[in-house]
User: Fold this.
Amino acid sequence: DGVSFEVRRYDGSKYAVVSSEGRTFDQVTGELVRKLLMYIGGSNEQAEAMGTAAPLIITVYPRNDGVLSRRLMVAIRIPSSYQQSPPTPTDSAVKIEERPGMTVYALQFGGFAGETEYRAEALRLTRTLGETAPFQRKQYFCCSYDPPLKPYGRRNEVWFLQEEP
Assistant:
């Protein structure tokens, strides 16, 4: 089918995380992303602008029919120079979380991506990997690398977490 994906390893790191329950992916992602960008941009107790970080990683929990549940988590990796002691968020919705290292199957695609596009790409990756690939099926990651106003050459990815043997 000509679908190419990558297998990537990420080291454990600290992330700024915001979560939501009850609203759909498209209703809430913009708001959650803004909270994280405000934190990274200096809305923290130290008033530290940490520079840019990418990608934004949205953890989704698909139902059996593929539709995303109304529970999601948006995370951004805290830049390396702040990993030791991340600035304290001023927004109580922003949490700092230590995440373990992980290996992912990553499928890249372009354009503006919402729930429909991420679901379609997740289905493509599922079909490409087949039934026997060792990946987590209860959740996956929707990743966005570009600022909202970038009109062309956008990069998005779907990541499936490889199950460790």
